[in-house]
Amino acid sequence: MVDIKDGASYAPTAAARKVVTRGEFVFAAAFLDHGHIYGQTNGLRDAGAHLKWVYDPDPARLEKFVQTYPGVQVAPSFDCILQDAQVQLVASAAVPDQRARVGLQVLQHGKDYFTDKSPFTELSQLEQVQAVVDQTNGKYLVYYAERVHNDAAWQAGEMIKDGAIGQVLQVLNLAPHRLAKATRPDWFFDKARYGGIITDIGSHQVEQFLTYAGCAAASVNFARVENFGHPDKPGFEDFGEFSLTGDNGASFYSRVDWYTPEGLRAWGDGRTFIVGTQGTLELRKYLDVARQAPASKLLLVDGAGEQEIDCLGQTGFPFFGQLILDCLQRSEQAMTQAHAFAAARLSMQAQAVADARATATVGAAQ
Q1: CATH fold of 147-317, please?
Q2: I want to staple 27 with a disulfide (CB 3.0 to 4.6 A). Which of 89, 138, 163, 268 is the partner?
Q3: In sequence order, which ranges of the chain are alpha helices (DSSP H)?
Q4: pLDDT digits (tens, 9 = 90+) for 5-42
Q5: Tens digit of each residue's pLDDT (9 = 90 or more) over 343-356
């Protein structure tokens, strides 16, 4: 049963179409610092991938993972995974500032890499990884779960591709999250480790905008971050907002925060509003407040009228099967490398704008 109250351990599973037979695509999981590794693992296994190894230096995290996936072998070292010629992909949810370092090792050993978002905490990490990707032709894949592992978010992209609302003019993403402060590790509150709220949660939102609006790039108009309510954690940002303009003129605004009330039945009331030239879409991704939880709904308004579309459990999360086939066929159906990097780059650029604004504000106050 998926726990919709806890975003850190939210790990959907589905009766997905298996794109490979057992043993045809082998992967390992390593560095289990964030609970998203369970969502990554579920998605790959649901699509037919075989989980062979797991590695983590923490025995408690290892024990939980092995209990969840009986039969997985515990690797005595990360190098054991890197040296195994059967392993085609390594999935990882390391501490964010370590994700690029882990990925570089994977790529340099001739394997593809599937990391939790955010894939980087600094632009210099992206530049270093880009050079190794160009050199090795390896894949540095990113788990932007708020779109690829959500029924309504995935279905919205398919409908937009089919022309359901015409050309997308504007996307608005609201992304509140539950903090569950007592359960978070120390690195979660250290900005040098997690990269800032826009780098982290914001990377999800940028990826959705680029997908829905069909943008390859965008510019940052405005960005702001704050620590409104946690003076005991000076390195923590609990609120962020930013605005982008896409290379095709589409506009974007997003709010990200850690202020989900305890009474909400899900970890966050994620909403997306999309305006097109021929219609609008509203996404209620995780619940329909005061009506249904869990839920994954689309509200479509077009020239024919109004529709409420129930998406929960309907898509099978095709991203993961596409990802597996991309690795086997060296194609880019699930997500292009340029797109994955663009989402990360833009979120870090917006974070830098917000950081500069914060520094200027402090300086003016002094």
Answers
A1: Dihydrodipicolinate Reductase; domain 2 (3.30.360)
A2: 89
A3: 36-46, 59-68, 78-83, 99-108, 123-136, 145-148, 151-161, 191-194, 197-213, 319-329, 337-365
A4: 887 778 888 888 899 998 999 999 999 999 999 999 99
A5: 999 999 999 999 99
